[in-house]
């Protein structure tokens, strides 16, 4: 009996043999390498690479539209700038993914508060672009508070909703509703109806994961539909977008032209740089970059990108099946739902099944604020899905390097 147990313990120790798996590296980087979800990291790297190719394809059209006739405005101007933003954003993503969860929780609460204050200042101090005030001019560049608020809002809501486990008498759901309502009001003042929908949808999804009563969830769904109807009648931006989508009223040129551009390349596309319809798109490098991909690389490439987003969402949700921390589950699920929903809305607009919302395609569209904010969000996601790979392999515990490690 003792020999059998001893043999199993030795087998368990072999699983964490530092010489075999490089576990002798006890540095923060070494621990991060073994705990990070490398499949998820690879999927994100592929998505960023695809985004660079897409921005290179869209950059000539965007440069022609926004150059103002300047001879110094290179065709690949936006491509070069996107490389610079990626060079800045990727270290941020990796650095955040190496942090412990508790530290990220505290930083997210502070970040959410700062971004909400900035969001409140946007209507008064913001720079107007295409009829909307969504950016604060910092001198060296523009800062879009709503983009940075997204990940911090999710983590803050996850912490708030997880408090219900320790004390069910706390008015958690009411408090979360008030915070979400304040964010919605601030966004609609810009106006930014699309982001308002994303914040509300992610909040309801997190309530469902937190175990809110089904009747209340149904009530919230009905309230959301009523809110959209009221927005249609009393909110000019929503009225114009919905009329344009449903009845073809007003300026519906953008979504119609995007659909024509998307399908112009057929299944396999016209080839890199061979697209011509992209020069007629209003925002070829941001809102309508998915249509540029369709024209130059084909509908099959568009399908593969959609599947890549689906793979990222599915990977995270499957990873959370073995997670025990309710805070980590809510935070990671909320972040990946928000990520997937933004991608879905952008693609839906490009294929003309949703009204135009001015929303970028995550990690593919050009944008400094967007790239940096998404890197923060995915850094948080990677941190909340980190796990010691040896924790569930065996019921036998081995003392190794001062730690108790299961085989």
UniProtKB/TrEMBL annotation:
PANTHER family reported in the protein's UniProt record: CELL CYCLE PROTEIN, PEPTIDOGLYCAN GLYCOSYLTRANSFERASE FTSW-RELATED
Main location, first listed in the record: membrane
Annotated coiled-coil segments of the chain: none
Transmembrane portions of the chain: 39-58, 78-96, 108-127, 147-163, 170-187, 193-210, 217-235, 297-318, 327-351, 363-384
Annotated InterPro entries: FtsW/RodA
Record Pfam families: FTSW_RODA_SPOVE
Top-level taxon of origin: Bacteria
Any one GO MF annotation of this record: lipid-linked peptidoglycan transporter activity
Record key words, sorted: Cell shape, Glycosyltransferase, Membrane, Peptidoglycan synthesis, Transferase, Transmembrane, Transmembrane helix
Lineage, top ranks: Bacteria, Pseudomonadati, Pseudomonadota, Alphaproteobacteria, Sphingomonadales
GO CC annotation: cell division site; plasma membrane
EC class (word): transferase
Membrane topology: Multi-pass membrane protein
Catalysed transformations (reactions): [GlcNAc-(1->4)-Mur2Ac(oyl-L-Ala-gamma-D-Glu-L-Lys-D-Ala-D-Ala)](n)-di-trans,octa-cis-undecaprenyl diphosphate + beta-D-GlcNAc-(1->4)-Mur2Ac(oyl-L-Ala-gamma-D-Glu-L-Lys-D-Ala-D-Ala)-di-trans,octa-cis-undecaprenyl diphosphate = [GlcNAc-(1->4)-Mur2Ac(oyl-L-Ala-gamma-D-Glu-L-Lys-D-Ala-D-Ala)](n+1)-di-trans,octa-cis-undecaprenyl diphosphate + di-trans,octa-cis-undecaprenyl diphosphate + H(+)
N-terminal signal peptide: none
Family as reported in the entry's similarity comment: Belongs to the SEDS family. FtsW subfamily.
EC number(s) from the headed UniProt entry: 2.4.99.28
Localization per Swiss-Prot or TrEMBL: Membrane
Gene Ontology terms describing biological process: cell division; peptidoglycan biosynthetic process; regulation of cell shape
Name of the featured protein: Probable peptidoglycan glycosyltransferase FtsW
């Amino acid at each position: 009996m003792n020999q059998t147990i001893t043999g199993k313990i030795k087998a368990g120790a072999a699983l964490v043999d530092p010489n075999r798996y490089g576990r002798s590296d006890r540095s923060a980087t070494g621990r991060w390498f073994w705990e990070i979800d490398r499949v998820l990291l690879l999927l994100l790297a592929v998505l960023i690479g695809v985004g660079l190719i897409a921005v290179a394809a869209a950059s000539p059209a965007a440069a022609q539209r926004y150059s103002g006739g300047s001879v110094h405005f290179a065709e690949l101007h936006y491509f070069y700038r996107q490389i610079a933003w990626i060079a800045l954003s990727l270290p941020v993503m990796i650095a955040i993914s190496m942090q412990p969860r508790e530290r990220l929780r505290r930083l997210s609460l502070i970040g959410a508060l700062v971004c909400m204050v900035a969001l409140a200042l946007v209507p008064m101090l913001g720079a107007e672009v295409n009829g909307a005030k969504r950016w604060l001019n910092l001198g060296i560049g523009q800062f879009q508070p709503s983009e940075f608020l997204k990940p911090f809002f999710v983590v803050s809501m996850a912490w708030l909703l997880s408090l219900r486990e320790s004390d069910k008498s706390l008015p958690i759901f009411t408090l979360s509703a008030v915070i979400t309502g304040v964010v919605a009001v601030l966004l609609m003042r810009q106006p930014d109806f699309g982001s308002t929908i994303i914040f509300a949808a992610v909040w309801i999804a997190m309530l469902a994961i937190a175990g809110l009563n089904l009747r209340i969830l149904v009530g919230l769904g009905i309230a959301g539909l009523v809110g959209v109807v009221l927005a249609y009648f009393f909110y000019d931006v929503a009225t114009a977008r919905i009329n344009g989508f449903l009845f073809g009223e007003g300026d519906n040129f953008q979504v119609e032209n995007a659909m024509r551009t998307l399908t112009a390349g057929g299944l396999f596309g016209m080839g890199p740089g061979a697209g011509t319809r992209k020069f007629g798109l209003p925002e070829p490098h941001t809102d309508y970059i998915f249509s540029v991909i369709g024209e130059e690389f084909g509908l099959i490439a568009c399908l593969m990108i959609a599947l890549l987003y689906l793979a990222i969402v599915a990977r995270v949700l499957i990873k959370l099946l073995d997670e025990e921390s309710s805070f980590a589950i809510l935070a990671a699920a909320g972040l990946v739902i928000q990520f997937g929903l933004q991608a879905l809305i952008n693609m839906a607009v490009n294929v003309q099944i949703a009204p135009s919302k001015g929303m970028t395609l995550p990690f593919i569209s050009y944008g400094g604020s967007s790239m940096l904010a998404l890197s923060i969000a995915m850094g948080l996601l990677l941190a909340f899905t980190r796990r010691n790979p040896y924790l569930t392999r065996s019921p036998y515990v081995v003392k190794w390097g001062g730690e108790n490690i299961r085989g």
